[in-house]
Amino acid sequence: MSIFVALLWGLLCSVVGISLPGLLNLTAAKTSIRDGRSRALIFSAGATVVIFIQAYISVAFAKLISNSGDLLKLIQEIGLGAFALLTIYFFFFAKKPKVIQEDNTVRTKVGRFFLGMLLSALNFFPIPFFVLVSVSLANNELMVFSPLTNLFFVLGVIIGSFSVFYLYIVFFQRIQHKTEWLMRNMNYFLGSVTGLVAIINLIKILRE
Q: pLDDT per residue over 91-148, tens digit each?
């Protein structure tokens, strides 16, 4: 039963943490419109691999990380720099995506997989998020963490994360014929998201 509870908590927490529009969600949607569903799913798989690693590290070392203010501050500062650079890239350097057309352009699945890993690795928020979640669950006796329950918690995170990505991919593909304006401005949406995240990170750092 504890294993099943851990799986459900991981699923719930990942859905709550990833459902809102963010860099990974919008990039998966953008990829599905421009390159097709299969490459978007490959991108999502790459992102999910890194989320798995982040979640497992966070849960396994939750108390250690949460008690180390310097480590959390370092993570926030790295995240601030990464998202600030991404914001500049999306607003000033990224090419505007064209409305999807039938062509024979080859975009490798391997490239999409590693792009998903890269963008997910630049997103440091899952680490403090899952640290907070795991410590809160343990303190409220809602879950007892052990190597086995940690594993099933993270499996729940993987299932929930990939499911959210899949829903974004399917939704944006279904409204593909209405996305000409969205495609022209997708980089600005992504830049706004990364900019907002950078501002939130900066506020957290200044308050400490």
A: 776 655 444 443 434 356 678 888 888 888 877 677 777 877 777 777 667 777 788 8
First to last CA, the chain: 40
Cα 114 off chain centre by: 14
State if pTM tops 0.70: no
What letter represents residue 18's amino acid? Answer: I
Rounded Cα distance, 3 and 177, in Å: 44
- Rg, Å, the chain Cα set: 18
Within 13 A of 14's CA, how many CA atoms are on the CB side? 28
The pLDDT tens digits of the residues spanning 41-96 come to 999 999 999 999 988 888 887 766 656 667 666 666 766 776 677 778 767 766 55
124 and 76 Cβ atoms separated by less than 8 Å: yes
Which amino acid type is present at position 54? Q
Per-residue tokens: 61? 């070392």
- How do the domains of the chain map onto residue ranges? 2-97+106-207
CA 126 – CA 122 distance, rounded (Å): 10
Closest CA to 191 of 88, 116, 121, 37: 88
